[in-house]
Amino acid sequence: MVRPNCELCSEPVQREQPSISCHSCKNLFHSNCVNPLSQNVSSPSNNPSWICKVCLIKPKPSDTDDKLNRILSELQSIKSHQLKSDDLLNGISSSMAALNDKVLQQGKYISSLGQSVTSLGKQLSTVTIDVKSHGQLIASPTTTEFTPSLNDIAREVQLRSLLAVNLIIRGVPESPNKSISERISHDKKFVSDIFSKLDPPVPVELILKAYRIGKTSDTKPRLLKIILTSREAVDSIVTTFPKLLINPPDHLRSVSITRDRTQSERQSIREVYQELSTRRERGESNISIRYYNGIPKIITATSDSKNGNHQQRPTTKKS
Q1: Handedness of CA 60, 62, 66, 69 (dihedral sign)
Q2: Contact 243/251 with Cβ under 8 angstroms?
Q3: How far does Cα 26 stand from its chain's mean position?
Q4: How far is it, in rounded angstroms, from Cα 259 to Cα 40?
Q5: What is the pLDDT along the chain (319 residues), one digit of tens a residue?
Q6: Got the DSSP string for the chain?
Q7: 121-134: buried (b, 16+ CB within 10 Å) or exposed (e) per residue?
Q8: 165 and 229 in contact (C-beta within 8 Å)?
Q9: Region annotation Disordered: residue ranges (predicted)?
Q10: In b/e form, how buried is each residue of 241-260, taking b as 16+ CB within 10 angstroms?
């Protein structure tokens, strides 16, 4: 086994040689090398707190150094906490930015939802009016025996919604050309000419389809059905076309334009006109037909005894 060397003479310290160990650095020394005159340092146990000269001359840390080290340690700790705080603040800032974006998105969504609710409210109001109107149209105005069910009204509302973009034009001459494409081109050109004369004019691009309906006759042209892009276009044409007939061109004198109506509407209108004819035959005068929300009503003109103005009011069939 290799023995440790003496830190002073660098010779091995044999087991039988007196030696001593430094309490501070733990190095082993020959007793004679440490103090040749001393006989009390034969073994480390004789002086367990002995310190060698090397350790004795080492500078001891002062209180100032200790305080400085503590301050540096605390500063390092503070810096570490600051870095963690910066990371936390950056995370909070990112979260706040993301939250702000979400709030803006939710604000836009709520605004859009509000507009949708407003639109649905208007649609609901329109549907309510349509349901009431169709309920009266399905039930014959001259018959009280039939009461329409909700399914009848729903079907009528749906069908009328589909027909709301259609027009029926009567009196448009048919082309003698045998080519289908030529006849279609003739009809579209005729309709485009009518629409261009309206105020405001209706662009031909709003016409989706135009075709004839009914059986061919030698005495009169078939009806011409026009499908447009929107209900608003139909409303505009139906409203402005009568103004064109005040002083119409010769080729438009026999032309009429009406909305496309359901079978129930057509039956209702026929019965109202039949009632009007019957009542006139019985001697009633100053009666005519006027439409209220698309529903035909027989109205009678009455005189205001105070100012002499003529007024019109709906009237019912006399028994």
Answers
A1: negative
A2: no
A3: 82
A4: 133
A5: 677 899 888 899 888 888 888 888 888 888 888 876 544 444 444 667 888 888 887 766 566 677 788 888 888 888 888 888 888 888 898 889 889 889 999 888 898 888 888 877 776 666 566 555 555 555 544 444 556 777 888 888 889 889 999 999 999 999 999 898 999 999 999 999 999 999 999 998 999 999 999 998 888 999 999 999 999 999 999 999 999 888 888 888 999 999 999 888 888 888 999 999 999 999 988 899 887 766 788 998 764 434 444 445 555 554 4
A6: -PPPBPTTT--B--TTS-EEE-TTT--EEEHHHH-TT-SS-SSGGG-TT---HHHHTSPPPPHHHHHHHHHHHHHHHHHHHHHHHHHHHHHHHHHHHHHHHHHHHHHHHHHHHHHHHHHHHHHHHHHHHHHHHHHHHHS-TT--S----HHHHHHHHHHHHHHTTEEEEE-PPPP--S-HHHHHHHHHHHHHHHHHHSSS---GGGEEEEEEES---SSSPPEEEEEES-HHHHHHHHHHHHHHTTS--GGGTT-EEEE---HHHHHHHHHHHHHHHHHHHTT--SEEEEEETTEEEEEEEEE-TTT--EEEEE-----
A7: eeeeeeeeebeebb
A8: yes
A9: 300-319
A10: beebeeeeeeebeebebebb
Residue type, 177: N
Residue with tokens 């009328």: 160
Q: Which residue has the tokens 């009455």?
A: 302
Amino acid at 220: K
Which has the closest alpha carbon to 18: 1, 4, 33, 2?
33
Q: Six-digit token pair at 41?
A: 């340092």
Cα–Cα dist 143/221, whole Å? 34
* pTM of model > 0.85: no
